[in-house]
Automatic annotation (TrEMBL):
Listed name of the protein: MFS transporter
Membrane topology: Multi-pass membrane protein
Keyword line: Cell membrane, Membrane, Transmembrane, Transmembrane helix, Transport
Keyword Zinc-finger: no
PROSITE patterns: MFS (PS50850)
Classification via Pfam families: MFS_3
Main location group: membrane
Ranges for domain Major facilitator superfamily (MFS) profile: 1-406
Amino acid sequence: MPILSERPPWRETLVSLRVPNYRKFAASNLVANTAVWMQRIAMDWLVLQLSGSVAAVGVTVAMQFTPMLVLGLWGGVIADRYPKQRLLILSQSSAAVLAAILATLTLTGSIQVWHVYVISFALGLVTVIDNPARQVFVNELVGPHYLRNAISLNSSIFQLGGLIGPAVGGILITAVGAGWSFAINAVACLTVVAALFSLNTSQLHASPAAPRGKGQLAEGMRYVRSKPVIFWTVIMVAVLAVFAFNMPVFLAAYANNVFDVGAKGYGFFNALVAAGALTGAIASTRRTSIRLSMVVGTAVLLGVVQAIAGLAPNEIAFSVMLVGIGVANLLFITGANSLVQMSSNVQIRGRVISLYILVLLGGQAIGGPLMGWVVEQFGPHTAMLISGLVPALAAVVIASLIARRAHLRLRFSLRGVRPQVTIVTRAGKSVEQL
């Protein structure tokens, strides 16, 4: 799918920020994402301290993502039916209340593991509405012309928050405890609400609301199944979500059991992943096209790098591989997100995105406890190795199935300055160069 006629100059890397509404939204999102990462780090470490179990951290992850697994498709229907701005105001206000409750329980010393589980589940219910509405609302903020850049920039903002948040969160946990991270997140959510109220609604590119009717969930499922580009991307996201996207579980185990670096080290490991992811997100703004082969290829890359991290002999080597994991992760996610959004019809996009988010977050609801169990049974190194090898193998299998169905094969050439790999049809016609 061509998205740009030519690679943009570096000065246009942030071109979507020229839109005033998106500029306000992006600024508030940076504050909120930094605070959300602080809260995530604090929640995971708090559960680990209260329970002494890495598997309990996996359960916390599952509590956050199970609502999306069960109700995610309904979130897409709601996002298609109702104004996204109002939905986001409601969801962010709810998230602020939940963060305030968590802060109060922690600062008063009343917090227990089951409290964190319940609040994590409630935050998951908020995510059911917030995520599909947020994804589709970006299109309303910037319009189709800047959509691709805004998607990549959103990923950059998310990862910049992930770079700052874990480092600050780790310091806060050590200095004053986890409670203040939750309090800061409550204020940050209210900042997003204020920004949403301040938007100029006359400049929004409003999406047409989907009418009420029977069979809308089934319609969304049929649409995804009929579009191979979307279908195979969603399948690949599902595999990675279960096995590879459970870094809190792995990093908590490495920080606590392998390198014994405590909360600061846990925050530092998360910051390294985010630093690589920020690099990958910025690099993704330079893409001139998005292909299914690119999405599957970056899945293989991510799996291989993550498997190598499981074999890292020391903390320095492990830290370097974490940066590589972040780069590959974001190249995959931004490619998959862009391909799904830009390949779907605007009137059904909310349901398509909700299915995409369902497998992304729902997969982590399954993978969190699963990989937590693997960590406790076989150790962090083996778990990290498995988390990379399974997705890499799955990506190779998917690529083979796609190639067989489309009658494609690879052609290798050693001519010229560098080797070339080209996808061709059986008749020898070139489809694309890798």
